[in-house]
Amino acid sequence: MKILYLASFAVLQFHFCSSLSVEILKPNSTGPEAALVIVPGAYITGAAYKPLAEVLQKNSNLKLWVALLDGFFNKLPNPLQFPIVFNKAVNELLKAGYKGKKVFLAGHSLGGEVVALYGQKANHILDGVLLFASYITKNNELKEYPFPVLTISGDLDGLTRITRIVDTFEELQEDVKKDPEQKYKTPVIVMESINHGQFASGQLPKPVTDHDLNPEVSQSVAYNTIANYSNAFMVVVRNDTDTNVTEAENILEDGYTKTATMMQPLSKVKALDQNPEFTSHWTNTAQELVVSLKNITDVEFINYEDESLDILPKQLPVLSPSDYIKIESLTTLWMQPNPLDSTTSPLSPLQLKATMKSQEAVKKILPSSQFGIPASCKEVNQNAYELAFAKSSPMAKERYTSRGRRIIFNDDVSVSSEFQWVRSQLDLNYNQSGLYVTAARFHTGMSEPTKSYSGQNDCTLLSPFRAMEWIYIDSLKYTTSQIKSNTT
């Protein structure tokens, strides 16, 4: 029985390993030797990265060897097979004439996830890691990664969303404040007009084409842009005296600056509701619109965010002894559960569930003040979209205006009880014609039997960041499967 088991295991191991293959591309230039092993994305062949590899070699100041990996089970790179084929690649490089002791390791998309995981073990013979349209998952800090790591993607990537990469870039910005060298050790670069598929070539698989956005540059331009930053990263990491390290650092510096400019609108709008202060600044704006006081000089709007999903309204507003009015609101920030840190669906808040005071309640405290027409939840959500559009980059505005699907706001759906309010949600309906937004509204009069519920005007609000994510990404998607993947 033991012999049969061992024989079966040997057969399984043979089939598990025999499909794995490596293609070696020998260097065509001189300089210090380096090698790059490239892991493909899901359902993409290793050969699809040959055009990019050839541009990397042609433009490099290094004598760059490249190994293209292929043959993963079901065409899915995985951590079980990867160590086997990686060792095979290193051996093939040495057999072909590579004289170096370390290699760079790159992975595209799912291949990047496998590479990032493998690189977390510091006992490998790696110079550094390049994540093509991929990223180090959350709860793993950039500055703690064992090797230098480049995170690089395009702003038209429909799978590795810019709304996810903004988190990694913000992490880098904080690291750079303490150590400016981090922009060379762990650079995060987003390239303009390039999509997810342009790291590869040929007919891309349906999972990519279903989600990706249309690029705005040719494959040639994309390859040269990717190679420019990738080669600069490898030169800086190697720090060989025979290469122009200063020039390479300037290229990475330029990438950092351009990415910072690109990310600034996203970071600012995201921070309205996702911030260390646990304050929804947008709910404060919503409360102002709902109250519609003509003069708010002596009024302070205060918000508290809460993670509970069944919050009940508080006794609000309160009148301080100094006659300085404080109007408090409470917001529940609803996020889509995402334990795997995946990025094909929207990453912004599903809704801001806002408990606010009505205009009638404030009129009771300020009977002599002047008021305008109170905003409905629908009108507040329209304002969220208008803010997101106004804060978007000129490029994002042009793309949305010229080819984006519209966002449509339906009338509010009123709920009449505490139970209904607790269960209500912002309805986001993604379909072929656009994004349809319908808010729930819970309004109580001033003579409610439960005093704490008196004078409420509660709304399920659209996050400005969700509106911005629509403008930047989801409005530019057209196919049925793309739209289905965004349904929440």
TrEMBL record:
GO terms for molecular function: hydrolase activity. Keywords: Signal. It comes from the Eukaryota. Residues 36-200 form the Alpha/beta hydrolase fold-5 domain. Residues 1-19 form the signal peptide. InterPro entries: AB_hydrolase_5, AB_hydrolase_fold. Gene3D superfamilies: alpha/beta hydrolase (3.40.50.1820). This is Alpha/beta hydrolase fold-5 domain-containing protein.
